[in-house]
């Protein structure tokens, strides 16, 4: 037992990954593999003149009935050749009307094909799998969390092939490479690595390929599992790769020389390596005039400071450094705190925690109820707390401003990391005043400066390794024609992107 | 759990234990003082003490007692001590909260103490980390600072608000109130002479002697300037000399000048702007023989009583002449007084050094001898402007 749980060191090692099923391939072993699976369906049919039936199996719900009936069962039922003429090869070459009919030789591959939506056809002289999967999926819809006024309205869905098609429609180049991996011993999740040949650094791609190949997990169901395998194991709350719902954002990353990863079942694209400037830029930044975008970017950096430092700064000045507060403001704060029984630090940290609880409650509940909870929690309880002199109105304003400033962060993961650090900095400020706050901030900067993934410093462009990294990745948005180079820190094969 | 995490958790636990064991009172961490317990002190009065060298009186702001409660008179505390620091420590013991001097913005000096010298006070404010060099300074004429603080206090007023209003009303052109500790120290460092604004206390006719506490017992007004030599109060300037001194020191103040015209009309001219420039005169040997004080100024016609037509150029010129003459009299009065007293409280020497840096050494050497006999001439340059024509208000006035 421990704070972070055990690492299971005393349990036997994971069994070898492949083959998972090493028995000989035949109907008995195949059926036994799916024993107890209620959705396992099978059928026998005997073509005219055959002594033995053809056995066909599939998983209900994974296949589309019309495809199985019309393009597999019907041609097989009407198969004209006798059983003795070794029909397997003939059937693969045109006996069934299926573009993805394959002869299988191992139980492992056959099982994998079936769980991926194929039917298995057991013939007297061999086994064939035909892809008859259902393509039921959610329609392409507008991204919920990254909507923009001026720009594309389509977002990723759970189907990996749909997602690649969304990218292909924007990147009409054969140099867009897509490499497939299957990750998860149990889930066998298709994961695809994308990059543009001739732009992305070969070294970067090789390192990502190695990382992906080394993943040995039972399941890959969430983005966090992927991120933690792709990045170095550093104890940081900050996101290291960019997850986005927007295909255009992934395209932008690919064109910069980054790589992207798509996971079947996750309606997000993953762009890597990530750096802090990526998490501060919103999708619509390129849609607005560069002056407006730069202004908004500055506003976001200001909000970053506010959300991170404001609660801590308020605690510092209200408990340790009164002389830093303008006199009239100090008088207002004193008047508002007259009857509040708690210390400023307790008020701020308590209210920050209450704010987090409210936020979590709003996320877990259905949307309509979540809004109600927010209103009741934020307005009614907040006002009641002020009226009851449990918290002072200034503290409510400070925590609310910090919270709202945090919502301006374009990336939720980045915003979450700031929430964690905000609480820590507030605690340090309560202990040591401005000194604690500054020490915490210095530690945070040092921590961020120590982060690096695939050779890319996390603090680019604030801490570039080379001077030219600033030119291609300015802190503010430059006019598009003036940005002629791709980010240098990615070491792209071709740095120039426009003349 | 990995070794790294174990180490982190162990470190956090150790830190928590260290804080717990060493306790809040230790020197390891700064002691927090919640702002709700703080008594903000805004004004400090310094007087000659009866039993000790000093009597320190401090005043806070008006206080709100509870939600919707009535405003209470400002907190006023007094303490006698040999030094200001010791007095402040004594004040802390009198209060039920933390006496916070970091927001002290005004000092009121009693006349008796001022005559003994301001050196110690300037030294204290310069050294103490909580004091602000921008704190404003006032001298109370014919009374003590304590009387000023207590006399101005009521349920609706505190001396701080009144002094703030005075300093804001008297400044012109957005300039800061010039009479601060920073300026005092700078002037004393230059030649030991300084000017300070003078407050006078008068009985408030609206004062309720029954004790309702709604109105203050005394009214505070700004009456002019007093000059200090060798850090000690020497004398008060007349109102005219005070106005002239302010003009020479580029501390232009909001003022209205009434000018009598030839037909008996009276024009009220608002002083809008004034900028002083010095022009030294040297003889063939390079000795300083005279100084012309140029005041560039602008006035604006505020009111006109009588039959004079302000759109006529000759009427405007009459107003300008009268306006310039009045300013000249003020400035000349200040210069004359400075020479009579042999105190360069207008800091002409310092200004001349910047005007004639090549002759700086000579000016410094000769100043004490030549200053009393120096020929000081005043030149006022400027016009009265008319803001608009009342008959044609929508057209350009001039």
Could you list some keywords that capture this structure?
heterodimer; A: 499 residues; alpha+beta; five-stranded antiparallel β-sheet; 16 helices; 12% strand; elongated; B: 398 residues; alpha/beta; eight-stranded mixed β-sheet; four-stranded mixed β-sheet; 16 strands; globular
Describe the protein in words.
The complex is a heterodimer of chains A (499) and B (398). By secondary structure, chain A is α+β, with helices and mostly antiparallel strands. Chain A has helices spanning 27-33, 65-77, 87-95, 107-115, 160-170, 202-214, 223-230, 247-256, 276-280, 290-319, 327-336, 344-364, 367-387, 393-407, 412-450, 468-472, and strands spanning 40-45, 54-59, 102-104, 118-123, 126-131, 176-183, 189-196, 242-244, 259-263, 269-272, 452-453, 456-457. In chain A, β1 and β2 (54-59) form a beta hairpin. Chain A is elongated. The termini of chain A are far apart. In chain B, α8 (239-248) crosses α9 and α10 packs antiparallel against α11 (360-370). Chain B is globular. With 398 residues, chain B is an alpha/beta fold. Chain B has eleven helices and 16 strands. The chains are: A alpha+beta (499), B alpha/beta (398). Chain A binds chain B through residues 2-7, 235, 318-320, 322-323, 325, 327, 330-331, 333-335, 337-340, 343-345, 389, 430-433, 435, and chain B through 1-2, 4-6, 8-9, 19, 29-30, 32-36, 38, 40, 42, 61, 64-67, 100, 102-103, 105, 130.
